[in-house]
Design goal:
Length: 199
């Protein structure tokens, strides 16, 4: 079988999201510079776009390799996958762009945008804090799933910004982050992120 190819820039949070699940499943892959929509994944004749769809495909097709990231049935898993894409991502993405990516590109953060999205993310993470405080080690229960994996890239980048306290100030969110961020597959993913020397 031809090697799996992940098209995109290695510093892209969406590419990082897909790379984390590929590493979690123990799959060999290469990141290829993009030509069009990113990220994209080529697995043999199958070509997919959108990091969440790529992750679902990987977790399903390679279900027997590595941890089962999509246990069935799991209403909690489906709920937290939706929460990540519809609540967490819209708040964290502009925040990471303003505080980390924009300065790397030579720009200055827009304080009004930072304040708005930090407040939005604080509300979202308060919901996570309450959920995790109920004895949930991971978002969908006692096992690491795709819901946790899909958060890794943006949580990691957020912790590299002045707003890292949004995670650190919530003990249950921080404990969850501390557990998911030391998984061997995630550490392998982080080691491949080409941060500029000043990041």
């Amino acid at each position: 079988m031809a090697p799996i190819k992940l098209y995109g820039m290695a510093l892209s949070p969406n590419v990082i999201r897909a790379a984390a699940v590929l590493n979690e499943k123990g799959l060999d892959f290469e990141i290829v510079p993009p030509f069009g929509q990113v990220p994209a994944l080529q697995d043999g004749d199958e070509v997919l776009y959108e990091s969440r769809a790529i992750n679902r495909y990987i977790a399903t097709k390679y279900k027997s390799q590595g941890p089962d990231l999509v246990p069935t049935p799991s209403a909690k898993l489906e709920t937290w996958l939706e929460v990540e894409s519809h609540h967490f991502y819209p708040a964290v993405s502009p925040l990471v762009f303003q505080l980390l990516i924009k300065p790397m590109l030579g720009g200055a953060p827009d304080a009004a945008v930072v304040d708005k999205h930090a407040a939005d993310l604080a509300k979202v993470l308060d919901v996570y804090e309450a959920h995790l405080a109920k004895g949930n080690k991971y978002l969908a229960g006692d096992a690491y799933t795709l819901a946790d994996a899909n958060h890794l890239s943006y949580l990691f980048l957020l912790t590299k910004t002045p707003k890292a306290e949004l995670v650190a100030s919530r003990p249950h969110v921080k404990a969850w982050w501390d557990v998911i961020s030391v998984r061997p597959a995630w550490l392998k993913t982080v080691a491949a992120i080409p941060f500029p020397p000043s990041a």
